[in-house]
Amino acid sequence: xAVKKKAKNKETLIRVENLSKHFGATVALDEVSFEIPKxxxxxxxxxxxxxxxxxxxIFAGIVERTKGKIFFExxxxxxxxxxxxxxxxxxxxxxxxGTIENITVAENIFLGQEMLFSKxxxxxxxxxxxxxxxxxxxxxxxxxxANTPTHRLDLQDRKLxxxxxxxxxxxxxxxxxxTTTALSHTGRELLYSLMNKLANNGTTVLFVSxxxxxxxxxxxxxxxxxxxxFVGSLEKEEFDVDRIKQMxxxxxxxxxxxxxDDEGYSDEVVLRAExxxxxxxxxxxxIELHKGEVLGIGGLSDCGMRTLxxxxxxxxxxxxxxxxxxDGTVINNxxxxxxxxxxxxxxxxxxxxxxxxxxVKENIVSIAQRINQVFGxxxxxxxxxxxxxxxxxxxxxxxxxxxHLVSTLSGGNKQKIVFGKWIGVDSQILIMDCPTRGVDVxxxxxxxxxxxxxxxxxxxxxxxxxxxxxxxxxxxxxVIMRNxxxxxxxxxxEEFNQEKLIDAML
Length: 506
Ligand SMILES: Nc1ncnc2c1ncn2[C@@H]1O[C@H](COP(=O)(O)OP(=O)(O)OP(=O)(O)O)[C@@H](O)[C@H]1O
What we know:
Elements (H helix, E strand, L loop, with lengths): L11 E12 L2 E12 L3 E5 L6 H8 L7 E6 L2 E2 L5 H6 L2 E4 L11 H5 L8 E2 L2 E2 L1 H14 L16 H14 L4 E5 L7 H16 L3 E5 L3 H7 L2 E6 L2 E7 L5 H9 L19 E10 L6 E6 L3 E5 L6 H8 L5 E8 L8 H6 L2 E4 L3 H5 L6 H6 L7 E3 L2 E2 L1 H14 L16 H14 L4 E5 L7 H16 L3 E5 L3 H7 L2 E6 L2 E7 L6 H8 L1
Parallel strand pairs: 3-10, 3-11, 6-9, 9-10, 15-21, 15-22, 17-20, 20-21
Antiparallel strand pairs: 1-2, 1-4, 4-5, 7-8, 11-12, 13-14, 13-16, 18-19, 22-23
Helix pairs in contact: 13-14
Bound molecules: adenosine-5'-triphosphate.
The site of adenosine-5'-triphosphate has 21 residues, from β2, α1 and α14.
Protein backbone atom coordinates (compact mmCIF):
# COMPACT_ATOMS: atom_id res chain seq x y z
CA UNK A 1 0.00 0.00 0.00
CA ALA A 2 1.71 3.22 -1.15
CA VAL A 3 0.81 6.57 0.42
CA LYS A 4 -0.03 9.81 -1.37
CA LYS A 5 2.18 12.90 -1.21
CA LYS A 6 1.34 15.32 1.49
CA ALA A 7 4.27 16.69 3.50
CA LYS A 8 4.35 20.16 1.90
CA ASN A 9 2.52 23.10 3.45
CA LYS A 10 1.76 21.29 6.65
CA GLU A 11 2.14 22.81 10.07
CA THR A 12 5.42 21.98 11.83
CA LEU A 13 5.08 19.56 14.73
CA ILE A 14 8.71 18.86 15.61
CA ARG A 15 11.55 21.37 15.28
CA VAL A 16 15.07 20.24 16.12
CA GLU A 17 17.77 22.87 16.67
CA ASN A 18 21.49 22.08 16.94
CA LEU A 19 20.85 18.82 18.73
CA SER A 20 23.99 16.91 19.80
CA LYS A 21 24.57 13.68 21.66
CA HIS A 22 27.97 12.46 22.79
CA PHE A 23 28.61 9.04 24.31
CA GLY A 24 32.08 9.60 25.71
CA ALA A 25 34.26 10.16 22.66
CA THR A 26 31.54 8.99 20.25
CA VAL A 27 29.56 11.78 18.63
CA ALA A 28 26.24 10.11 17.82
CA LEU A 29 24.49 13.37 16.83
CA ASP A 30 26.35 16.50 15.83
CA GLU A 31 24.46 19.84 15.80
CA VAL A 32 21.46 18.37 14.00
CA SER A 33 18.68 20.76 12.88
CA PHE A 34 15.52 19.82 10.95
CA GLU A 35 11.73 19.99 11.03
CA ILE A 36 8.95 17.43 10.69
CA PRO A 37 5.34 18.43 9.95
CA LYS A 38 2.19 17.19 11.63
CA UNK A 39 0.29 14.25 10.17
CA UNK A 40 3.01 12.82 7.93
CA UNK A 41 4.96 9.59 7.76
CA UNK A 42 8.58 10.72 7.84
CA UNK A 43 11.27 8.15 7.06
CA UNK A 44 14.46 8.57 9.04
CA UNK A 45 17.26 7.00 7.04
CA UNK A 46 21.02 6.69 7.26
CA UNK A 47 23.79 4.13 7.42
CA UNK A 48 24.30 1.94 10.49
CA UNK A 49 25.51 4.10 13.32
CA UNK A 50 24.41 7.38 11.71
CA UNK A 51 22.38 8.39 14.79
CA UNK A 52 18.78 7.45 13.90
CA UNK A 53 18.03 5.46 17.06
CA UNK A 54 19.84 8.03 19.19
CA UNK A 55 17.53 10.77 17.89
CA UNK A 56 14.49 8.54 18.41
CA UNK A 57 15.65 7.68 21.95
CA ILE A 58 16.14 11.33 22.87
CA PHE A 59 12.71 12.23 21.52
CA ALA A 60 11.06 9.31 23.34
CA GLY A 61 12.66 10.22 26.69
CA ILE A 62 14.98 7.19 26.79
CA VAL A 63 18.29 9.05 26.40
CA GLU A 64 19.32 12.53 27.48
CA ARG A 65 20.71 15.01 24.94
CA THR A 66 24.14 16.56 25.36
CA LYS A 67 23.03 19.92 23.96
CA GLY A 68 20.60 21.55 21.58
CA LYS A 69 16.83 22.03 21.55
CA ILE A 70 13.76 20.20 20.40
CA PHE A 71 10.40 21.97 20.04
CA PHE A 72 7.24 19.84 20.01
CA GLU A 73 4.02 21.73 19.21
CA UNK A 74 6.11 24.92 19.63
CA UNK A 75 6.98 24.05 23.24
CA UNK A 76 10.43 23.04 24.45
CA UNK A 77 10.49 19.22 24.49
CA UNK A 78 12.63 17.66 27.19
CA UNK A 79 10.95 14.57 28.66
CA UNK A 80 12.77 13.21 31.68
CA UNK A 81 11.63 9.62 31.11
CA UNK A 82 9.65 7.36 28.80
CA UNK A 83 6.47 7.57 30.84
CA UNK A 84 6.42 11.35 30.67
CA UNK A 85 6.98 11.21 26.90
CA UNK A 86 4.17 8.65 26.53
CA UNK A 87 1.78 10.68 28.65
CA UNK A 88 2.51 13.73 26.51
CA UNK A 89 1.87 11.81 23.30
CA UNK A 90 5.10 10.16 22.12
CA UNK A 91 5.16 6.37 21.80
CA UNK A 92 7.91 4.22 20.36
CA UNK A 93 8.40 0.67 19.11
CA UNK A 94 12.08 -0.14 19.63
CA UNK A 95 14.42 -2.07 17.34
CA UNK A 96 14.96 -5.09 19.55
CA UNK A 97 12.71 -6.63 22.16
CA GLY A 98 10.68 -4.11 24.14
CA THR A 99 8.55 -6.62 26.02
CA ILE A 100 9.01 -8.52 29.28
CA GLU A 101 8.83 -12.31 28.93
CA ASN A 102 7.38 -13.66 32.13
CA ILE A 103 4.14 -11.68 32.13
CA THR A 104 1.07 -11.74 29.89
CA VAL A 105 0.46 -9.66 26.79
CA ALA A 106 -2.04 -7.47 28.69
CA GLU A 107 0.45 -6.86 31.50
CA ASN A 108 3.03 -5.77 28.93
CA ILE A 109 0.57 -3.43 27.27
CA PHE A 110 -0.33 -1.80 30.59
CA LEU A 111 3.07 -2.05 32.28
CA GLY A 112 3.35 0.82 34.77
CA GLN A 113 -0.35 1.65 34.24
CA GLU A 114 -1.85 -1.10 36.40
CA MET A 115 -3.55 1.48 38.64
CA LEU A 116 -6.00 2.13 35.80
CA PHE A 117 -7.60 -1.16 36.76
CA SER A 118 -7.44 -0.88 40.53
CA LYS A 119 -10.42 -1.85 42.62
CA UNK A 120 -9.67 -0.76 46.17
CA UNK A 121 -6.40 -2.45 47.01
CA UNK A 122 -6.62 -4.92 44.13
CA UNK A 123 -6.00 -4.80 40.42
CA UNK A 124 -8.79 -6.22 38.29
CA UNK A 125 -6.92 -8.46 35.91
CA UNK A 126 -10.14 -9.22 34.05
CA UNK A 127 -10.67 -5.54 33.29
CA UNK A 128 -7.05 -5.23 32.19
CA UNK A 129 -7.40 -8.25 29.89
CA UNK A 130 -10.61 -6.83 28.43
CA UNK A 131 -9.02 -3.44 27.72
CA UNK A 132 -5.93 -5.06 26.18
CA UNK A 133 -8.05 -7.41 24.08
CA UNK A 134 -9.98 -4.43 22.74
CA UNK A 135 -6.74 -2.81 21.55
CA UNK A 136 -5.71 -6.10 19.88
CA UNK A 137 -9.14 -6.44 18.26
CA UNK A 138 -9.06 -2.86 16.98
CA UNK A 139 -5.71 -3.60 15.40
CA UNK A 140 -7.07 -6.87 13.99
CA UNK A 141 -4.31 -8.86 15.73
CA UNK A 142 -5.57 -12.42 16.01
CA UNK A 143 -2.43 -14.55 16.41
CA UNK A 144 -2.52 -14.31 20.24
CA UNK A 145 -4.81 -13.12 23.02
CA ALA A 146 -4.45 -10.55 25.78
CA ASN A 147 -3.98 -13.30 28.37
CA THR A 148 -1.28 -15.18 26.38
CA PRO A 149 2.04 -15.39 28.30
CA THR A 150 4.55 -13.27 26.38
CA HIS A 151 7.30 -15.93 26.48
CA ARG A 152 5.16 -18.05 24.13
CA LEU A 153 5.29 -15.40 21.40
CA ASP A 154 7.86 -15.21 18.63
CA LEU A 155 9.68 -12.01 17.69
CA GLN A 156 6.99 -10.89 15.26
CA ASP A 157 4.15 -11.27 17.78
CA ARG A 158 6.18 -9.49 20.47
CA LYS A 159 6.57 -6.58 18.08
CA LEU A 160 2.80 -6.58 17.62
CA UNK A 161 2.44 -6.38 21.42
CA UNK A 162 4.69 -3.30 21.39
CA UNK A 163 2.62 -1.73 18.62
CA UNK A 164 -0.56 -2.41 20.62
CA UNK A 165 1.08 -0.92 23.70
CA UNK A 166 1.99 2.23 21.78
CA UNK A 167 -1.60 2.58 20.56
CA UNK A 168 -2.92 2.75 24.11
CA UNK A 169 -1.28 6.18 24.39
CA UNK A 170 -3.07 7.53 21.32
CA UNK A 171 0.24 9.08 20.27
CA UNK A 172 0.74 12.40 18.51
CA UNK A 173 4.14 11.05 17.48
CA UNK A 174 4.56 7.35 16.80
CA UNK A 175 8.17 6.21 16.39
CA UNK A 176 8.82 2.90 14.65
CA UNK A 177 12.52 1.98 14.93
CA UNK A 178 13.60 -0.68 12.43
CA THR A 179 10.68 -2.92 13.22
CA THR A 180 9.49 -4.20 9.88
CA THR A 181 12.40 -6.62 9.47
CA ALA A 182 11.00 -8.53 12.44
CA LEU A 183 7.59 -8.73 10.78
CA SER A 184 6.24 -11.04 8.11
CA HIS A 185 4.30 -9.79 5.09
CA THR A 186 1.02 -9.76 7.05
CA GLY A 187 2.58 -7.98 10.05
CA ARG A 188 4.04 -5.36 7.74
CA GLU A 189 0.73 -4.71 6.01
CA LEU A 190 -0.89 -4.32 9.42
CA LEU A 191 1.75 -1.78 10.46
CA TYR A 192 1.59 0.16 7.18
CA SER A 193 -2.16 0.47 7.36
CA LEU A 194 -1.94 1.59 10.99
CA MET A 195 0.69 4.22 10.13
CA ASN A 196 -1.52 5.57 7.36
CA LYS A 197 -4.57 5.66 9.57
CA LEU A 198 -2.62 7.52 12.26
CA ALA A 199 -1.14 10.02 9.79
CA ASN A 200 -4.59 10.71 8.34
CA ASN A 201 -5.75 11.53 11.86
CA GLY A 202 -2.92 14.00 12.44
CA THR A 203 -0.28 11.79 14.10
CA THR A 204 3.28 12.14 12.86
CA VAL A 205 4.97 8.79 12.26
CA LEU A 206 8.75 8.66 12.45
CA PHE A 207 9.68 5.57 10.51
CA VAL A 208 13.23 4.20 10.76
CA SER A 209 14.06 1.58 8.15
CA UNK A 210 16.90 0.42 5.90
CA UNK A 211 14.52 -0.90 3.28
CA UNK A 212 14.48 1.92 0.77
CA UNK A 213 11.68 0.37 -1.27
CA UNK A 214 9.51 0.32 1.83
CA UNK A 215 10.61 3.86 2.76
CA UNK A 216 9.81 5.30 -0.64
CA UNK A 217 6.45 3.53 -0.77
CA UNK A 218 5.28 4.28 2.76
CA UNK A 219 6.64 7.72 3.57
CA UNK A 220 5.48 11.23 2.64
CA UNK A 221 8.97 12.61 3.26
CA UNK A 222 12.36 11.44 4.46
CA UNK A 223 15.15 12.98 6.53
CA UNK A 224 18.67 11.70 6.08
CA UNK A 225 21.43 11.42 8.69
CA UNK A 226 25.06 10.66 7.94
CA UNK A 227 27.68 10.12 10.67
CA UNK A 228 25.53 11.99 13.17
CA UNK A 229 24.95 14.96 10.88
CA PHE A 230 21.74 16.01 9.17
CA VAL A 231 22.16 15.79 5.38
CA GLY A 232 18.73 16.93 4.16
CA SER A 233 15.07 16.10 3.71
CA LEU A 234 13.21 15.02 0.57
CA GLU A 235 9.51 15.29 -0.24
CA LYS A 236 7.71 12.36 -1.85
CA GLU A 237 7.96 13.79 -5.38
CA GLU A 238 11.75 14.09 -4.95
CA PHE A 239 12.22 10.44 -3.94
CA ASP A 240 14.80 8.59 -5.97
CA VAL A 241 16.50 5.54 -4.49
CA ASP A 242 19.93 6.32 -5.97
CA ARG A 243 19.74 9.90 -4.72
CA ILE A 244 18.76 8.70 -1.23
CA LYS A 245 21.62 6.21 -1.19
CA GLN A 246 24.03 8.91 -2.22
CA MET A 247 22.77 11.22 0.53
CA UNK A 248 23.17 8.41 3.06
CA UNK A 249 26.60 7.26 2.01
CA UNK A 250 28.05 10.42 0.47
CA UNK A 251 29.07 8.59 -2.68
CA UNK A 252 27.59 6.41 -5.41
CA UNK A 253 27.20 2.76 -4.44
CA UNK A 254 29.20 0.62 -6.80
CA UNK A 255 28.42 -2.80 -8.15
CA UNK A 256 25.39 -5.00 -8.20
CA UNK A 257 23.62 -6.00 -5.04
CA UNK A 258 23.07 -9.60 -5.99
CA UNK A 259 25.00 -12.00 -8.17
CA UNK A 260 23.80 -12.63 -11.66
CA ASP A 261 25.63 -15.76 -12.78
CA ASP A 262 24.35 -19.27 -12.49
CA GLU A 263 27.48 -21.12 -11.37
CA GLY A 264 25.64 -24.03 -9.83
CA TYR A 265 27.03 -26.07 -6.96
CA SER A 266 28.57 -29.46 -6.30
CA ASP A 267 26.52 -32.69 -6.06
CA GLU A 268 28.22 -33.43 -2.76
CA VAL A 269 25.75 -33.27 0.14
CA VAL A 270 27.34 -31.62 3.22
CA LEU A 271 24.30 -31.53 5.48
CA ARG A 272 21.27 -33.77 5.37
CA ALA A 273 18.04 -33.81 7.39
CA GLU A 274 16.20 -37.12 7.11
CA UNK A 275 12.61 -37.38 8.22
CA UNK A 276 13.09 -34.96 11.09
CA UNK A 277 10.21 -34.27 13.43
CA UNK A 278 10.35 -31.50 16.03
CA UNK A 279 8.04 -30.67 18.91
CA UNK A 280 6.40 -28.00 16.79
CA UNK A 281 6.43 -27.17 13.08
CA UNK A 282 8.26 -30.06 11.39
CA UNK A 283 6.96 -33.55 10.66
CA UNK A 284 9.17 -36.04 8.77
CA UNK A 285 10.99 -33.22 7.01
CA UNK A 286 13.78 -33.87 4.49
CA ILE A 287 16.33 -31.50 3.05
CA GLU A 288 19.87 -31.58 1.66
CA LEU A 289 22.45 -28.81 1.45
CA HIS A 290 25.31 -29.14 -1.03
CA LYS A 291 28.91 -27.99 -1.11
CA GLY A 292 29.16 -24.51 -2.61
CA GLU A 293 25.42 -23.98 -2.51
CA VAL A 294 23.34 -21.05 -1.30
CA LEU A 295 20.03 -22.68 -0.47
CA GLY A 296 17.31 -20.10 0.11
CA ILE A 297 14.44 -21.00 2.43
CA GLY A 298 11.34 -18.82 2.27
CA GLY A 299 7.80 -18.81 3.53
CA LEU A 300 5.46 -16.96 5.85
CA SER A 301 6.72 -16.42 9.38
CA ASP A 302 4.96 -19.46 10.84
CA CYS A 303 5.89 -21.88 8.02
CA GLY A 304 8.52 -23.70 10.10
CA MET A 305 11.65 -22.27 8.43
CA ARG A 306 12.90 -20.77 11.70
CA THR A 307 12.59 -24.13 13.49
CA LEU A 308 14.32 -25.82 10.56
CA UNK A 309 17.34 -23.52 10.88
CA UNK A 310 17.63 -24.30 14.59
CA UNK A 311 17.10 -28.03 14.12
CA UNK A 312 19.87 -28.23 11.49
CA UNK A 313 22.25 -26.56 13.95
CA UNK A 314 21.32 -28.83 16.87
CA UNK A 315 19.53 -26.03 18.69
CA UNK A 316 16.06 -27.59 18.46
CA UNK A 317 15.11 -30.93 19.95
CA UNK A 318 14.59 -33.53 17.23
CA UNK A 319 12.02 -36.15 18.26
CA UNK A 320 12.49 -38.43 15.29
CA UNK A 321 14.80 -38.64 12.27
CA UNK A 322 18.27 -37.13 12.19
CA UNK A 323 20.56 -34.42 10.88
CA UNK A 324 23.92 -35.64 9.62
CA UNK A 325 27.05 -34.19 8.09
CA UNK A 326 28.86 -35.57 5.05
CA ASP A 327 31.03 -37.84 7.27
CA GLY A 328 28.00 -39.26 9.10
CA THR A 329 28.38 -37.13 12.24
CA VAL A 330 24.97 -36.68 13.83
CA ILE A 331 24.15 -33.06 14.73
CA ASN A 332 21.96 -33.12 17.81
CA ASN A 333 23.52 -30.34 19.87
CA UNK A 334 25.15 -26.99 19.17
CA UNK A 335 28.54 -28.02 20.60
CA UNK A 336 28.93 -30.75 17.98
CA UNK A 337 27.75 -28.32 15.31
CA UNK A 338 30.35 -25.69 16.25
CA UNK A 339 33.12 -28.31 16.53
CA UNK A 340 32.29 -29.33 12.96
CA UNK A 341 32.56 -25.80 11.65
CA UNK A 342 28.89 -25.04 11.47
CA UNK A 343 27.60 -21.53 12.15
CA UNK A 344 24.18 -20.18 13.07
CA UNK A 345 23.09 -16.56 12.79
CA UNK A 346 19.79 -16.17 14.61
CA UNK A 347 17.07 -13.75 13.61
CA UNK A 348 16.79 -12.88 17.30
CA UNK A 349 20.22 -11.28 17.36
CA UNK A 350 20.25 -9.73 20.82
CA UNK A 351 18.99 -12.84 22.61
CA UNK A 352 20.47 -15.71 20.65
CA UNK A 353 23.57 -14.49 18.85
CA UNK A 354 25.25 -11.98 21.15
CA UNK A 355 26.17 -11.46 24.77
CA UNK A 356 25.08 -7.83 25.07
CA UNK A 357 26.86 -7.19 28.33
CA UNK A 358 30.17 -8.47 27.03
CA UNK A 359 32.60 -6.41 24.97
CA VAL A 360 32.97 -6.40 21.20
CA LYS A 361 36.19 -8.38 21.58
CA GLU A 362 34.70 -10.94 23.95
CA ASN A 363 31.83 -11.60 21.54
CA ILE A 364 34.09 -11.94 18.51
CA VAL A 365 36.55 -14.31 20.18
CA SER A 366 33.87 -16.32 22.00
CA ILE A 367 34.13 -19.33 19.68
CA ALA A 368 37.70 -18.77 18.50
CA GLN A 369 39.58 -20.27 21.46
CA ARG A 370 41.41 -22.80 19.29
CA ILE A 371 42.67 -20.12 16.93
CA ASN A 372 44.00 -18.00 19.75
CA GLN A 373 45.72 -20.75 21.74
CA VAL A 374 49.48 -20.66 22.14
CA PHE A 375 50.47 -23.61 24.35
CA GLY A 376 47.87 -26.32 24.77
CA UNK A 377 44.72 -24.72 26.16
CA UNK A 378 46.45 -21.44 27.06
CA UNK A 379 44.99 -18.51 25.18
CA UNK A 380 47.10 -15.55 24.16
CA UNK A 381 45.35 -12.27 25.00
CA UNK A 382 47.56 -10.52 22.48
CA UNK A 383 46.51 -12.95 19.75
CA UNK A 384 42.88 -12.56 20.77
CA UNK A 385 43.08 -8.77 20.62
CA UNK A 386 44.69 -8.92 17.17
CA UNK A 387 42.10 -11.42 15.97
CA UNK A 388 39.18 -9.27 17.19
CA UNK A 389 40.70 -6.14 15.66
CA UNK A 390 41.02 -7.91 12.30
CA UNK A 391 37.30 -8.75 12.25
CA UNK A 392 36.49 -5.15 13.26
CA UNK A 393 38.63 -3.81 10.40
CA UNK A 394 37.53 -6.36 7.79
CA UNK A 395 33.85 -5.72 8.42
CA UNK A 396 34.25 -1.97 9.16
CA UNK A 397 32.50 -2.39 12.51
CA UNK A 398 31.77 1.08 13.90
CA UNK A 399 32.70 1.02 17.59
CA UNK A 400 34.76 3.33 19.77
CA UNK A 401 37.02 0.39 20.71
CA UNK A 402 36.97 -3.39 20.89
CA UNK A 403 36.61 -3.07 24.66
CA HIS A 404 33.21 -1.36 24.45
CA LEU A 405 30.08 -3.25 25.45
CA VAL A 406 28.13 -4.65 22.50
CA SER A 407 24.95 -3.16 23.98
CA THR A 408 26.25 0.32 23.09
CA LEU A 409 26.52 -0.45 19.37
CA SER A 410 23.98 0.37 16.69
CA GLY A 411 21.81 -2.50 15.42
CA GLY A 412 23.65 -2.96 12.13
CA ASN A 413 27.04 -2.97 13.79
CA LYS A 414 25.85 -5.65 16.20
CA GLN A 415 24.90 -7.76 13.19
CA LYS A 416 28.38 -7.27 11.73
CA ILE A 417 29.82 -8.65 14.97
CA VAL A 418 27.71 -11.79 14.58
CA PHE A 419 29.06 -12.18 11.03
CA GLY A 420 32.64 -11.57 12.20
CA LYS A 421 32.33 -14.11 14.98
CA TRP A 422 31.43 -16.94 12.61
CA ILE A 423 33.46 -15.96 9.56
CA GLY A 424 36.63 -15.60 11.63
CA VAL A 425 36.59 -19.29 12.59
CA ASP A 426 36.29 -20.34 8.95
CA SER A 427 32.81 -21.87 9.29
CA GLN A 428 32.03 -24.23 6.41
CA ILE A 429 28.26 -24.58 6.78
CA LEU A 430 26.45 -21.37 7.68
CA ILE A 431 22.79 -21.26 8.64
CA MET A 432 21.70 -17.65 8.39
CA ASP A 433 18.28 -16.55 9.58
CA CYS A 434 17.53 -13.10 8.14
CA PRO A 435 21.22 -12.13 8.07
CA THR A 436 20.67 -8.65 6.70
CA ARG A 437 18.06 -7.64 9.27
CA GLY A 438 18.70 -4.03 10.27
CA VAL A 439 21.76 -3.47 8.10
CA ASP A 440 22.10 -0.52 5.76
CA VAL A 441 22.42 -0.68 1.97
CA UNK A 442 26.21 -0.44 1.98
CA UNK A 443 26.69 -3.17 4.56
CA UNK A 444 24.03 -5.28 2.88
CA UNK A 445 25.92 -5.29 -0.38
CA UNK A 446 29.15 -6.11 1.54
CA UNK A 447 27.39 -9.03 3.25
CA UNK A 448 26.02 -10.33 -0.02
CA UNK A 449 29.51 -10.19 -1.47
CA UNK A 450 30.81 -12.12 1.52
CA UNK A 451 28.11 -14.77 1.06
CA UNK A 452 28.94 -15.04 -2.63
CA UNK A 453 32.67 -15.30 -1.93
CA UNK A 454 32.00 -18.00 0.65
CA UNK A 455 29.90 -19.94 -1.83
CA UNK A 456 32.63 -19.67 -4.47
CA UNK A 457 35.19 -21.00 -2.01
CA UNK A 458 33.07 -24.13 -1.46
CA UNK A 459 31.23 -23.16 1.71
CA UNK A 460 27.54 -23.95 2.03
CA UNK A 461 24.91 -21.48 3.12
CA UNK A 462 21.33 -22.01 4.17
CA UNK A 463 19.75 -18.58 3.80
CA UNK A 464 16.42 -18.23 5.61
CA UNK A 465 14.81 -14.99 4.53
CA UNK A 466 11.54 -13.12 4.42
CA UNK A 467 12.86 -10.85 1.67
CA UNK A 468 11.94 -12.24 -1.73
CA UNK A 469 14.45 -10.08 -3.65
CA UNK A 470 17.18 -11.38 -1.32
CA UNK A 471 16.15 -15.01 -1.83
CA UNK A 472 15.89 -14.57 -5.59
CA UNK A 473 19.09 -12.58 -5.86
CA UNK A 474 21.27 -14.81 -3.69
CA UNK A 475 20.06 -18.41 -3.91
CA UNK A 476 21.18 -21.23 -6.19
CA UNK A 477 18.04 -23.10 -5.22
CA UNK A 478 14.95 -21.94 -3.32
CA VAL A 479 12.77 -24.06 -1.09
CA ILE A 480 9.45 -22.52 -0.05
CA MET A 481 7.86 -23.91 3.09
CA ARG A 482 4.21 -23.91 4.11
CA ASN A 483 2.85 -25.46 7.31
CA UNK A 484 6.10 -27.25 8.03
CA UNK A 485 6.31 -28.85 4.58
CA UNK A 486 8.06 -28.05 1.32
CA UNK A 487 5.51 -26.48 -0.98
CA UNK A 488 7.92 -25.64 -3.78
CA UNK A 489 11.52 -26.23 -4.80
CA UNK A 490 13.12 -24.45 -7.70
CA UNK A 491 16.62 -24.02 -9.14
CA UNK A 492 18.16 -20.75 -10.32
CA UNK A 493 18.55 -22.30 -13.79
CA GLU A 494 14.75 -22.69 -14.03
CA GLU A 495 14.38 -18.94 -13.39
CA PHE A 496 12.81 -17.79 -10.17
CA ASN A 497 9.43 -16.20 -10.51
CA GLN A 498 8.29 -13.91 -7.69
CA GLU A 499 4.55 -14.54 -8.19
CA LYS A 500 5.04 -18.32 -8.19
CA LEU A 501 7.07 -18.12 -4.97
CA ILE A 502 4.37 -16.05 -3.27
CA ASP A 503 1.69 -18.50 -4.44
CA ALA A 504 3.69 -21.33 -2.89
CA MET A 505 3.87 -19.49 0.44
CA LEU A 506 0.15 -18.83 0.78
N1 LIG B 1 24.81 3.81 24.94
C1 LIG B 1 25.77 4.08 24.06
N2 LIG B 1 27.06 4.17 24.45
C2 LIG B 1 28.04 4.43 23.56
N3 LIG B 1 27.84 4.63 22.23
C3 LIG B 1 26.58 4.56 21.79
C4 LIG B 1 25.47 4.27 22.66
N4 LIG B 1 24.33 4.26 21.92
C5 LIG B 1 24.70 4.52 20.65
N5 LIG B 1 26.05 4.70 20.57
C6 LIG B 1 26.83 5.02 19.36
O1 LIG B 1 26.21 6.12 18.72
C7 LIG B 1 26.31 5.97 17.30
C8 LIG B 1 24.92 6.11 16.68
O2 LIG B 1 24.18 4.94 17.03
P1 LIG B 1 22.65 4.74 16.64
O3 LIG B 1 22.19 3.51 17.33
O4 LIG B 1 21.92 5.99 16.90
O5 LIG B 1 22.76 4.51 15.07
P2 LIG B 1 21.62 4.07 14.02
O6 LIG B 1 21.67 5.05 12.91
O7 LIG B 1 20.33 3.87 14.72
O8 LIG B 1 22.22 2.70 13.50
P3 LIG B 1 21.49 1.30 13.03
O9 LIG B 1 20.90 1.56 11.71
O10 LIG B 1 22.64 0.35 12.91
O11 LIG B 1 20.51 0.92 14.09
C9 LIG B 1 26.97 4.62 17.05
O12 LIG B 1 28.34 4.85 16.81
C10 LIG B 1 26.77 3.88 18.36
O13 LIG B 1 27.81 2.93 18.58
